[in-house]
Specification:
217 residues, mainly alpha, Heme Oxygenase, Chain A, disordered C terminus, binds protoporphyrin IX containing FE
Length: 217
């Protein structure tokens, strides 16, 4: 029998609000693309760093340092051959989702914390496909190690305890969508994503006029 607690209304709203974003991004990420190699992985993690490092600074007042993932990215990049100077010189994303209150911080955190769940799948796949090891390039994908489940459950409890006014809930969901949108745009700009339709809702018009999108291809 499952002992999973009933999802909070806020979690259900976040899942419903970001499902399409997750699917769109997952389809564009190159992890499972034929020919994806360690050099591609290094480029991808470098781009991840450019998003996580500045975004985590804006979250500093809302989450403890133990949830910061940029340090794991730095360790991975060093293990994959970048120097500290190379890492310092990596471009950093300027168009970040705004974090101006607890409600929005929770939405941003939902995306970053949730990505650790997919990380479990990716960690195993990248170990197998790229021959990487926990101390050689897989630290970010398994950032919480054996504590992954307890970190996620603790975050879900925080969501469940969060203010549940309609306005706060809407702000949290919007921040989560913004995070996916900003991240996808940033990765695309860094040239590490496949071409595809995106979840960028502000471009909904573009999608509608894209024949492939209309045909659902
Ligand atoms: C190819 C890349 C990815 C794969 C294969 C993947 C896969 C997964 C899987 C298997 C789960 C767990 C679903 C469950 O246990 O119910 C998950 C959850 C999640 N992922 Fe991903 N993911 C990927 C990329 C990402 C990225 C880049 C982000 C955000 C930056 C992200 C955000 C999330 C979130 C927020 C959840 C939590 C959903 C929830 O339980 O509410 N994922 N992903």
């Amino acid at each position: 029998m499952s002992t999973r607690p009933t999802p909070s209304p806020l979690l259900l709203a976040l899942r419903a609000g970001t499902r399409a974003c997750h699917t769109a991004l997952e389809e564009r990420l190159p992890f499972f693309r034929e020919g994806f190699d360690v050099a591609g992985y290094r480029r991808l993690l470098s781009a991840y760093y450019g998003f996580h490092a500045p975004l985590e600074l804006t979250l500093a007042g809302y989450q403890g340092v133990e949830r910061a993932k940029a340090p794991a990215l730095v360790r991975d990049l060093l293990a994959l051959g970048l120097s500290a100077a190379d890492i310092d010189a990596l471009p950093l994303c300027q168009a970040l989702p705004a974090v101006e209150d607890e409600a929005r911080a929770l939405g941003v955190m939902y995306v970053l914390e949730g990505s650790t769940l997919g990380g479990q799948v990716l960690k195993r796949a990248m170990a197998e496909r790229l021959g990487l090891a926990p101390d050689r390039g897989l630290g970010f994908l398994d950032v919480y190690g054996a504590a992954s489940g307890s970190y996620w459950r603790a975050f879900l409890e925080r969501l469940a305890d969060a203010a549940c006014t309609q306005a706060a809930q809407a702000a949290t969901v919007q921040a989560a969508i913004d995070t996916f949108v900003c991240f996808e745009r940033w990765l695309a700009q860094r040239g590490v994503l496949d071409q595809a339709n995106t979840c960028t809702t502000p471009h909904a018009g573009t999608r509608a006029t894209n024949p492939a999108a209309v045909l659902g291809q």
